[in-house]
Amino acid sequence: MLSKAPPHIEVRNLTMAYGDRIIQKDVNFTIDRGQVFVIMGGSGCGKSTLLRHMIGLNLPAQGEVLYSGEDFWSASPTRQMNMIKLFGVLYQGGALWSSMTLGENIALPLQQYTDLTEETIREIVSFKLSLVGLAGFESYLPAELSGGMQKRAGLARAMALDPEILFFDEPSAGLDPISAAHLDDLILELCDELGTTVVVVTHELASIFKIADNAIFLDAESKTAIAQGNPNTLLAESQDPRVQHFLRRGETDVTLETVKTGDPHG
After folding, report:
1. Nearest to 234 by CA among 264, 207, 206
2. How far apart, in whole angstroms, are the C-alpha atoms of residue 216 and residue 225?
3. DSSP secondary structure string, 12-47?
4. Residues 169, 91: contact at Cβ < 8 Å?
5. Per-residue exposure over 75-86, b if at least 16 CB sit within 10 Å of its own CB, e if not
6. Who contacts 72 (Cβ-Cβ below 8 Å, separation ≥6)?
7. d(Cα 173, Cα 160) in Å, to the nearest integer?
8. At CB < 8 A and 24+ separation, what contacts does 14-22 make?
9. Cβ–Cβ < 8 Å for 158, 178
10. For the chain, which ranges sit under pLDDT 50?
11. pLDDT the model gives residue 93
12. How far is the C-alpha of 239 from the C-alpha of 96, rounded, in Å?
C-alpha cells in the first residue's frame, strides 16, 4: 500500500515570541501542494511574523516548520539554504533595488545561485517579465513604474529561480483597487499554470475571498489561531464573533457574491 505524501508545508505547535512577549502560540496548519493559502487577521496579530518564521528569518520559540515532511529549523545550514532556494518572496514594498533596472533586479538571484550564461539569464529575465505582463521593460528603473507595476516586477524576481513556493507579504498594500484586483488575477494564473504553492499574508477582504483555497485566522487577543478553512465556509459556518466581525467588515459586494457562488476564485 502506498504511503500518503506529506503536506507541502506543515506548521506544528509553533510559538512565536520576541523575548518574553508571545506573539502567537500553538499554531498548527497544513498546506497542500498547489494551494493558495491565506494568513489573515487584524493588524498586529502576527501575520507577517508568521511568514518570517516560515521563510527562515525568525527562529521559533517552539515548534516546527516542515517542507515535504522535513523540519526547516532542525536541518543543517547547508540544507536550509537548499530549501530556501525553493522559495520566492514578494515583500510589501516590492523590495527592488532602486539603482538597478528591472532586468538587473531579476537577473541578480540567477547570477548569485546558478552557473547560467549571461545570454541564458537574459532570456529567463525576459520570460519572467512577460509572465507578469511587463515584456519589454528590462531597461526601466523601479522609480519609472507605477506601484502595481513595481509589485509585478517584484513578483517576476521572486519567480526567477522557479520556486516551488511563493510567499506574498501584503501584496495589495499601497495599490488602488483595480491594480490590486489585477495582482490577484495574476496570482491565480501563476498558481493554475505553474502549479506553484502560494502563501499570502493579507487583511484585504476582496483578495481573501477571491484567491484563497484555504486560510488561517490569527487572533491578537488570544494569541493563537482560532479558525482555519476556506473563507467562504468560515463566513457561512463559523460561530466565533471575532471571525465573523473580521470577514463581514463592510459586507462588500465581492464578499456577498462569493458566498452565493461558493467559488473561492470568483
Report:
1. 264
2. 7
3. EEEEEEETTEEEEEEEEEEE-TT-EEEEE-STTSSH
4. yes
5. beeeeeeebbee
6. 56, 64, 65, 66, 80, 83
7. 22
8. 14/50, 14/53, 14/60, 14/62, 14/63, 14/64, 14/65, 15/60, 15/61, 15/62, 15/63, 16/46, 16/49, 16/50, 16/53, 16/58, 16/60, 16/61, 17/61, 22/61, 22/223
9. no
10. 252-266
11. 65
12. 42
pLDDT, one tens digit per residue, over 161-202 is: 889 999 999 888 888 888 889 889 988 988 888 889 999 999
Whether 40 contacts 208, CB under 8 Å: yes
User: Per the structure block, which three cell numbers stand in for 66?
Assistant: 516542515
The span from the CA of 184 to the CA of 206, in Å, is: 9
Cell 521593460, located at residue: 137
- Radius of gyration of the CA atoms of the chain, in A: 19
Pairing of strands 197-201, 36-40: parallel
Measure the CA–CA gap between 196 and 194, rounded to whole angstroms: 5
pLDDT at residue 187 in the model: 86
Amino acid identity of residue 219, one-letter, is: D
Q: What is the pLDDT of residue 78?
A: 95
CATH class of 9-86+163-261: alpha beta
Is residue 62 within 8 A of residue 22, CB to CB? The reply is: no
**Cα 241 from chain centroid?**
26
Residue with cell 529567463: 124
HEC secondary structure over 211-237: HCCEEEEEECCCCEEEEECCHHHHHHH
> Do the strands 214-219 and 70-71 form a parallel or antiparallel pair, or are they unpaired?
unpaired
